[in-house]
Specification:
alpha+beta, three-stranded mixed sheet, 149 residues, three-stranded antiparallel sheet
């Protein structure tokens, strides 16, 4: 491992431990040349998930887009950010297990299914943006389905 301070190519590992619930390894290192200490993280490099947009463009999956939408939908709700991040983790893992390329519609539905279980008000907010309700009747249909189901 190259030292970030002096650029020397030889460092030694002082300590290793798992982090992020076993998803990565944290290593404390020391440069053999300048004796500076620094931390590195190792994680499994996952194959990228490709999202097929409505206009058929393809782009890399960006979990932050989902998280930003959830934060907006959950404004003034008592849902901790850690729970929203967990929801995104769950959706991302499900998608990675099943797809290499996935439509944005499948992602949106997966997020809404999880959000419906978490908070119904946040679900309606998210659905109103995601489904682009054009009028109050469509909005009421969605509310009725929520009440019935």
């Amino acid at each position: 491992m190259k030292c970030p301070y002096c650029g020397y190519a030889d460092t030694k590992v002082l300590d290793s431990r798992t982090s992020n619930e076993g998803e990565s390894i944290r290593r404390r290192r020391e440069c053999n040349h300048c004796s500076q200490r620094f931390t590195t993280y190792e994680r499994v490099d996952k194959l990228p998930l490709i999202v097929i947009k409505k206009d058929y463009r393809r782009e890399a999956f960006d979990r932050n887009k989902i998280l930003i939408g959830l934060v907006k939908a959950c404004e003034k709700r008592s849902i901790p950010l850690a729970r929203l991040e967990q929801l995104v983790d769950e959706v991302e893992q499900e998608l990675l297990n099943e797809y290499r390329e996935v439509s944005s519609a499948v992602i949106g539905e997966a997020v809404m299914d999880k959000l419906r279980e978490l908070d119904q008000v946040a679900y309606v907010r998210f659905a109103s943006v995601y489904r682009q309700f054009k009028d109050i009747n469509r909005f009421m249909e969605e509310l009725q389905q929520l009440l019935d189901g």
